[in-house]
Design brief:
heterodimer; A: 180 residues; Immunoglobulin-like; 2 domains; four-stranded antiparallel beta sheet; 1 helix; 15% helix; B: alpha+beta; seven-stranded antiparallel beta sheet; 4 helices; 7 strands; elongated
């Protein structure tokens, strides 16, 4: 311990081990926590169009428009190891072509410190709700759920679904007017 | 001075001790390799630990963060998951989030699934998905190969399951400044070979 170099070396090694222990502590104290809260989703309007689609083997695909409300209180999820929540509203359904389809309609990043109470009304979808085909027409059972990805300071990245989902039927006809 | 201490140690070693040092070095290298390959088997991914290279997933992940991946077949790809994938013909893996999936046959095993005639080039049981970086305004179709609109399971390196911040900066430094990497490796090798414990 009598040269600057050896002192610097031990200081460096010590701080590295302390940081590693802290990181592991952060991870292990929150690894098994329950991260689900109840969520209320309501859908106020559903429209369906059939438009040109260049991403598949067919000419036209179904395009859906959904207007929705979300209420949720995510306060209890935030703790010392949660950096942010990535929230996303996804629609899940099955069609003749595909047994399982999942489309994210809307997402939001909620950082620690932001208002954790969600109370959104009359939200329009952020992303185009294209189907891989024409499977939205007359589809009676499209389930909307709100889920979130918990991003920790260090540790596991779980995907949690809120309890509470809503099932939406799509109309049998295409909307021909230019409204949205 | 340091250099003189090293040389004294080397001169004091006889041939047997030198061989022992070399074997020691070999042991360390092969243990590291075994651990890495073991991780590859357990997680099912060809690259179980990756470093985030771009800022397209901020504020969740920044350049230099370390991600732990798994790629087990029993884990189906679902929206919201953070996938690390490679585009055909490009070496650099990309870390983004799944935005849309269309799966031809349910992984949960639909009991009433009938044989659906193939539509397009995908066969039953295949999944195609679209990704987008959290910090990007548009989805990744602009990044995919010319004419490619969807990603498939074969493009996936793994799904991000765990995360440690900042540690990967060392890897980025070593990639950006190769002289630094060679210097570190040389010094480490020298230290292990010459040190007596």
């Amino acid at each position: 311990m009598n040269t600057v170099l050896s002192r610097a070396n031990s200081l460096f090694a010590f701080s590295l081990s302390v940081m590693a222990a802290l990181t592991f502590g952060c991870f292990i104290t929150t690894a098994f926590k329950e991260r689900s809260v109840p969520v209320r989703i309501a859908v106020s309007r559903v429209t369906l169009k059939n438009v040109e689609d260049f991403t598949g083997p067919r000419e036209r695909s179904d395009l859906g428009f959904v207007t929705f409300d979300i209420t949720a209180d995510l306060q209890s999820i935030f703790d010392w190891n949660v950096k942010q929540l990535f929230l996303y509203l996804s629609a899940e359904y099955s069609t003749k072509n595909n047994a399982l389809n999942q489309v994210v309609l809307w997402d939001k990043i909620m950082l620690r410190g932001d208002n954790p109470r969600l109370s959104l009304k009359d939200m329009k979808s952020k992303y185009f709700f294209f189907d891989d085909g024409n499977g939205l027409k007359g589809n009676r059972n499209i389930t909307l759920t709100l889920s979130w990805n918990v991003v920790p300071n260090a540790g596991i990245l779980p995907l949690v679904t809120g309890s509470g989902h809503v099932s939406v039927p799509f109309p049998d006809n295409y909307e021909t007017t230019k409204s949205y | 001075m340091l250099s003189l201490d090293f040389l004294d140690d080397v001169r004091r070693m006889n041939k047997r001790q030198l061989y022992y040092q070399v074997l020691n070095f070999g042991m360390i290298v092969s243990s590291a390799l075994m651990i890495w390959k073991g991780l590859m088997v357990v997680t099912g991914s060809e690259s179980p630990i990756v470093v985030v290279l771009s800022g397209s997933m901020e504020p969740a992940f920044h350049r230099g963060d370390l991600l732990f991946l798994t790629n087990r077949i029993e884990d189906p790809i679902r929206v919201g998951e953070i996938v690390v994938f490679r585009i055909e013909g490009r070496e650099i893996p990309i870390v983004h989030r799944v935005l849309k999936i269309h799966e031809k046959k349910g992984s949960g095993g639909l009991s009433t699934a009938q044989s659906i005639p193939d539509v397009g080039t995908l066969q039953n049981g295949d999944i195609k998905f679209l990704t987008k970086g959290d910090n990007n305004a548009v989805d990744d179709r602009g990044l995919y190969k010319q004419g490619q609109h969807w990603l498939e399971k074969k493009d996936v390196v793994g799904r991000a399951r765990g995360f440690v911040p900042y540690i990967g900066i060392v890897t980025i430094l070593m990639n950006d400044y190769p002289k630094f990497k060679y210097a570190v490796l040389f010094l480490l090798g020298l230290f292990v070979l010459v040190h007596r414990e």
